[in-house]
Amino acid sequence: MRMRRSIIALAGTAALATLCGCTVRTPGPQDGRARPPVQAGVTGTTPDPDPSGTAPDDKPIAARTPGTPSPAPAVLYRRGDSGRGVRELQARLRQLAWLFEGPTGRYEASTEEAVKGFQGKRGLPRTGTTDTVTWDRLVGMTREPGQWELYLMGGQSAAEPDSRCLTGRVLCIDKTSRTLRWMIDGRTVSTMSVRFGSQYTPTREGVFQVYWKSRDHVSTLYHTPMPYAMFFSGGQAVHYSSDFAARGYAGASHGCVNVRDEAAVSALFAQVRSGDKVVVSW
Q1: What is the DSSP string of 96-113?
Q2: Are residues 244 and 195 in contact, defined by beta-carbon separation less than 8 angstroms?
Q3: C-beta of residue 259 within 8 angstroms of C-beta of residue 239
Q4: pLDDT in tens, 169-213
Q5: Cα distance between residue 167 and residue 171, in whole Å
Q6: Helix 84-95 crosses helix 132-141 at what angle (to 10 degrees)?
């Protein structure tokens, strides 16, 4: 009878184990107390079954933990940087009147101060560095700058020289890239940004020669200074322009080829001779 009751008790225990889905565990030496529940990913407990430390939804555990601080925004540009990205930053700051010079493509003190002003106005930390948050806010408030906003004050690359520029001594002037190459026997000696006449006073295109040089010329028609003038077609000349130096491509000439870099045009004036070829092309 006693054996029958034992058999019935054991059968009941097995049935209960099957129903609950767990295994019968024999009490160990720790006086029968159960182990604490396993917390995955915590030191001293059973390791997370995924060695990458990620949860089933592929998000890092730390990213979903309440109270975890957000990572700092990545810095895109800071003082001392240079390049096209800095030009675009400066052009966008100019659109909002936070910057009045350039773009130069160089992240200098004026750009840093402009960024600080923009950040402070929008409640962002006034670091003066352009991070992802600052950039996104700036892009959202401005339009994409065009080519001549990016290079308002010059600095663009010169186009490939016209084939007519490859022999002899030539002032090779390209209206598309707005540049002048001083070339001797196919070799570029110097390159500079230039500005042309407006649609009402266009710079003539074609092949010409320098027929007169005038170091301190003043226009008899417009009564404006034309230093380092090298005349090639009627009253049209290559010369230094203080207006181009100040306003960049926001202005235009009366048909002359303006140079904004006085040191460059001074050196050019010293090298060019009367009779040298001038090519003006698109």
Answers
A1: TTS--S---SB--HHHHH
A2: yes
A3: yes
A4: 999 999 999 999 999 999 999 999 999 999 999 999 999 999 999
A5: 11
A6: 50
The pTM of the full predicted model, rounded to 2 decimals, is 0.72
Q: Would you give the distance in Å from CA 117 to the centre of its chain?
A: 19
Which residue reads 């700092």 in tokens?
72
Indicate the pairing of strand 179-184 with strand 187-195: antiparallel
Quickly list DSSP for 68-87: PPPPPPPEEE-TT-BSHHHH
Full DSSP string of the chain: -HHHHHHHHHHHHHHHHHHHT-------TTTTPPPPPP-TTSTTSPPPSSTT-B-TTS-BTGGGSTTPPPPPPPEEE-TT-BSHHHHHHHHHHHHTTS--S---SB--HHHHHHHHHHHHHTT----SSEEHHHHHHHHHHSPPP-HHHHTTT--PPPPPPPGGGSSSEEEEEETTTTEEEEEETTEEEEEEEEE-B-SSSPPP-EEEE--EEEEEEE-TTT--EEEEEEEEETTEEEEE-HHHHHHGGGS-BSSSEEES-HHHHHHHHHH--TT-EEEEE-
Banded pLDDT at 65 (limits 50, 70, 90): low
Is the separation of the CB atoms in 258 and 203 below 8 Å?
Answer: no
Tokens representing 63? 């990213």
**Which whole-number Å values give the CA distances from 244 to 15, 94, 181, 257, 272, in the listed order?**
96, 18, 18, 10, 22
Nearest to 135, CA basis, from 104, 92, 97: 92
